[in-house]
């Protein structure tokens, strides 16, 4: 059984069809690339999986469970985490504090125990320890106590990944993680994603415009154009598909 199954998902905003009868699956342990021109519907699909949007029709199953029947606020607790195309960090908080925020979904606290400060000190210590382990893993320990404001863009991208990992996800949604990175940083990011897929037993759904990275990293690639799927297969098959070449990759990609 696929970890994520998208079945005939359609999303309409008034007269605009952002996604049209979209279906694809992501197998456990895969890195699946989701590509297409700007406006193709990639982030809309991410917002459906992370329960920001409710599809007009269709179904989304996560590990066999109807994800659309799950309250949006429980999505992270189910094992889904994401990063954002535009950074969504807290600039005045430290790097470590931002990563600790990501662990909230894995916390045993609720509104009552948090308000009354019941058993919070021990759990706070655990969250700090987990955050430090992730920061060390991603080479961010030297800036753990610096505020995010003013840090290099590539560094902040890694902080977002650390925060997402703190939620202990099974499915990680990465929305253009290579955007704004240098060529060297892109290569380093690809190595990092391969490592975290293995070390954290993750399945990754990746939206990215950096074609060399997507094709070199993904086990499977889904291509969207104007909200419709036009190709779905291995990178080798997708890059040779005439519809993909015409819609997105261009004749210069071989």
From the structure above, extract its key features.
about 250 residues; four-stranded antiparallel beta sheet
Please tally the helical runs, counting DSSP H or I stretches of 4 or more residues.
10
Largest sheet: number of strands, sense, barrel closure: 6 strands, mixed
Order of helices and strands: EEEHEEHEHHHHEHEHEEHH
Overall pLDDT level: 90
Q: Report the structural category.
A: alpha/beta
Count every beta strand, where a strand is a DSSP E run of 2 or more residues. 10
In percent, how much strand structure appears in the residues?
15-25%
Side by side, the strands of the main sheet go 6-7-8-3-9-10
Question: What global shape is seen?
Answer: globular
How far is the N terminus from the C terminus?
A: 33 Å
Question: What helical percentage do the residues reach?
Answer: 25-40%
| Rg over C-alpha atoms, rounded to the nearest angstrom | 19 Å
Poorly predicted residue ranges: none
What topology does this entry show?
Blueprint (H helix, E strand, L loop, with lengths): L3 E10 L2 E11 L4 E5 L6 H8 L7 E6 L2 E2 L8 H4 L1 E3 L12 H8 L8 H6 L3 H18 L15 H14 L4 E5 L7 H17 L3 E5 L3 H7 L2 E6 L2 E6 L1 H5 L2 H8 L5
Parallel strand pairs: 3-8, 3-9, 6-7, 7-8
Antiparallel strand pairs: 1-2, 1-4, 4-5, 9-10
GO molecular function: ATP binding; ATP hydrolysis activity
InterPro entries: AAA+_ATPase, ABC_AA/LPS_Transport, ABC_transporter-like_ATP-bd, BCA_ABC_TP_C, P-loop_NTPase
Keywords: ATP-binding, Nucleotide-binding, Transport
